[in-house]
Design goal:
With about 425 residues, the chain is an alpha+beta fold. The chain has 2 domains: about 1-20 and about 230-425, UDP-n-acetylglucosamine1-carboxyvinyl-transferase, Chain (Alpha-beta prism), CATH 3.65.10; about 20-225, Enolpyruvate transferase domain (UDP-n-acetylglucosamine1-carboxyvinyl-transferase, Chain, Alpha-beta prism), CATH 3.65.10. The chain has 14 helices and 24 strands. The protein has a 5-stranded mixed β-sheet, covered by helices on one side. Helix 6 (about 165-175) runs parallel beside helix 7 and helix 11 runs parallel beside helix 12 (about 370-380). The two termini are about 15 Å apart. It binds ligand EPZ. Ligand EPZ binds near residues 92, 160 and 303.
Length: about 425
């Protein structure tokens, strides 16, 4: 078991560089299998989810080489359209292999994907899209199989602008015959990055970033070189950390248009935010003001920053309201924040956050972003906090303890073996 041990109340100061976006890297890694020739992908973060997807891809027959944030994938030897069931359960994004292999081979089989336990996480919209393209879909005892002699384009209206469903349908439609139109599509920057990569591979995709995407199927794709966009959620987490510790942090390698909803809320809370070409400076000088936040699909306030901003709201001057509309179970971190002294009440999809001091205790990360929120609360709290089950955090934050230490945080990663505690880094 590995823990983070954090001594709070240190001002965070300096420069921190954001890594490539996990949620763009994952579908892009999967999409590389659709090409005839190798791809080189840059700024791929060192994360557990990426490790697992690379293993899945290798087990399907591709040659995968990883070095210094760069991944080389040669898909020419892919011969196995069946995803390793154990690995598939470890990450949500394993289901992208369905769209990829359906387009490439007309067949794929996987177990239902894993990922954070933040809601029901159905894949009905993905399957509805595959069916509309002419695929047969079978689901039995948690195993999903998709097959088609040929795929042909169609008009698909998504009942909800699901990120995963938009991506999966876009992947399959890229190698289908004719035109596919996805209406009420998601608009997240990560799927725009995927579409940019597919386009340099030879795909014909228009309207990405709007709510209607048009895809003209092509016969084949060639591998390409592509650099992944910066991770807006990691950037947002560091921006919040600066405001929370009364610090001054320059967050480097962030595309400001991707974090506009956070910038707006931080400014409303009285935090100084200065945008620059290379990054964003965040400084807290004055008392924070309470604000209300509702999570929404992009370009609304991201659900993936809801747990982290909730911690910041505990330091505001009055009660704040947070409404979670994307995931029905994304308040699991609240129990743990309460152990650190937070005064938060949940009523269905809403939570009321009252101001109060935070102080150290032993807590457990329940999911990726909830775990990040616990780290933030520990940084702001008096005394020492121990955070267990940090493997959730390591699924989505590259070297978070080193990046925070670089800003002056007192954070250590501790491995516990046979009841003995051993320091492994700071
Ligand atoms: C992506 O998940 C991200 N994961 C999530 O980030 C993020 O929270 C989410 O988008 C929303 O922004 C990856 O990119 C790997 P959705 P995804 O399909 O694609 C419902 C993180 O912390 N829905 O947009 O799974 C669903 O239940 C992770 O990095 C259906 O009803 O999200 C949810 O309520 C966690 N049927 C809503 O749509 C479907 O077929 C949004 O889900 C699919 C989704």
């Amino acid at each position: 078991m590995t823990q983070f041990r954090v001594k709070g109340r240190k001002k965070l100061e300096g420069v921190v560089k954001v890594s490539g976006a996990k949620n763009a890297a994952l579908p892009i890694l999967a999409a590389s299998l659709m090409a005839e020739t190798p791809s080189t992908l840059k700024d791929i973060p060192e994360l557990r989810d990426v490790d697992n997807l690379c293993q899945i891809i290798a087990k399907m027959g591709a040659e995968v080489k990883r070095e210094d944030g760069q991944v080389y994938i040669d898909p020419s030897s892919v011969n196995n359209p069946i995803v390793d069931f154990e690995l598939a359960r470890k990450l949500r994004a394993s289901y992208y292999v369905l769209g990829v292999m359906l387009g490439r081979e007309g067949f794929a089989r996987t177990s239902l994907p894993g990922g954070c336990n933040i809601g029901n996480r159905p894949i009905d919209l993905h399957l509805k899209g595959f069916k509309a393209l002419g695929a047969e879909v079978n689901m039995d005892h948690g195993i999903v199989e998709v097959k088609a002699d040929s795929l042909s384009g169609d008009r698909i209206y998504l009942d909800y602008p699901s990120v995963g469903a938009t991506i999966n349908i876009m992947l399959a439609a890229t190698l289908a015959e004719g035109q596919t139109v996805i209406e009420n599509s998601a608009r997240e920057p990560e799927l725009v990055d995927l579409a940019n990569y597919l386009t340099i591979m030879g795909a014909d995709i228009k309207g990405v970033g709007t709510d209607t995407i048009k895809i003209e199927g092509v016969d084949q794709l060639e591998g390409a070189e592509h650099r992944i966009i910066p991770d807006r959620i990691e950037a947002g987490t560091f921006m919040i950390s600066a405001a929370l510790t009364e610090g001054e942090v320059f967050v480097e390698n962030v595309l400001t248009e991707h974090v506009k909803p956070l910038i707006a809320k931080l400014k409303e809370m009285n935090v100084d935010v200065e945008e620059d070409i290379t990054g964003i400076k965040v400084e807290k000088k004055d008392q924070l003001k309470s604000v209300d936040i509702k999570t929404l699909p992009y370009p609304g306030f991201p659900t993936d920053l809801q747990p982290q901003i909730m911690v910041l709201l505990t330091q505001a001057d009055d009660t704040s309201l947070v409404i979670e509309t994307v995931w029905e179970n994304r308040f699991m971190h609240v129990d743990e924040l309460q152990r650190l002294g937070a005064d938060i009440k949940i009523d269905g999809h809403s939570s009321l956050i009252k101001p109060g001091n935070l102080s150290g205790a032993e807590v457990t990360a329940t999911d990726l972003r909830g775990g990040a929120a616990l780290i933030l609360a520990a940084l702001a709290g008096e005394g020492v906090t121990i955070i267990n089950d940090i493997q959730h955090v390591e699924r989505g934050y590259e070297n978070i303890e080193h990046k925070l230490s670089g800003l002056g945080a007192d954070i250590q990663k501790v491995s516990l073996h046979n009841n003995q505690k051993k320091e492994t880094g700071s």
